[in-house]
């Protein structure tokens, strides 16, 4: 708004200068008019140059201010982007850590199950082997008892036959 009033005031000065110049031109003769036109032209050029300089200064000020705002926004965006990238890295690290823990736990469970399976298999094999050996020992004892019983029966039969012949 300040710039608008400044330009309006400068325009008003130019108009006043032109009005004054034209009023003076009307009152003078040709020769005086030519000199006055030269002076007015010089004064007008000087005023226009001053206004142009003021406008350029205002534009440069706006450019500088806008550049500062753009720089602030860029810095803010860069900072936010860096924060987001850091959060992504941290989250990725946490996920990989959790996955490593899960894999490690599954590996431990697998090792534990393999160990339990091996121990149960070894125990059952030992138990079955012990039972088989016990059954083989019992079979041998039964065969020995059966052989002894046969021999005793044959002796009894032979003794009975010997008694039967005596009678």
In short:
The chain is an all-alpha fold and 167 residues long.
Write the topology of this structure:
Layout: H1 2-27, H2 30-166
Helix pairs in contact: 1-2
Q: What series of H and E elements makes up the topology? A: HH
For the report, how would you describe the main beta sheet?
A: none
Q: Give the DSSP E fraction (strand runs of 2 or more residues).
A: under 5%
What's the N-to-C terminus distance? 160 Å
Strand element count: 0
Poorly predicted regions = none
Helix content: over 70%
On the 0 to 100 scale, the average pLDDT is 80
The structural domain count equals: 1
Structural class: mainly alpha
Principal-axes geometry comes out as rod-shaped
Work out the radius of gyration: 61 Å
Number of helices: 2
Task: Give a description of the structure.
With 167 residues, the protein is mainly alpha-helical. It has one domain (2-166). The protein has helices spanning 2-27, 30-166. Helix 1 (2-27) runs antiparallel to helix 2 (30-166). The chain is rod-shaped and about 195 Å long. The mean pLDDT is 80.
């Amino acid at each position: 708004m300040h710039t608008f009033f400044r330009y309006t005031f400068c325009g008003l000065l130019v108009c006043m200068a032109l009005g004054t110049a034209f009023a003076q031109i009307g009152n003078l003769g040709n020769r005086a008019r030519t000199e006055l036109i030269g002076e007015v032209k010089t004064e007008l050029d000087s005023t226009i140059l001053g206004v142009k300089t003021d406008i350029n200064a205002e534009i440069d000020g706006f450019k500088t201010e806008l550049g500062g705002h753009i720089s602030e926004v860029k810095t803010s965006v860069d900072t936010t982007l860096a924060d987001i990238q850091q959060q992504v890295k941290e989250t990725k690290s946490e996920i990989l850590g959790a996955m490593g823990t899960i894999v490690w736990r599954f590996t431990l469970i697998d090792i534990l199950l393999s160990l339990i399976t091996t121990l149960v298999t070894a125990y059952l094999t030992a138990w079955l082997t012990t039972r088989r050996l016990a059954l083989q020992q019992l079979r041998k004892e039964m065969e020995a008892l059966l052989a002894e019983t046969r021999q005793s029966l044959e002796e009894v039969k032979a003794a009975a036959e010997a008694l039967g012949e005596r009678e």
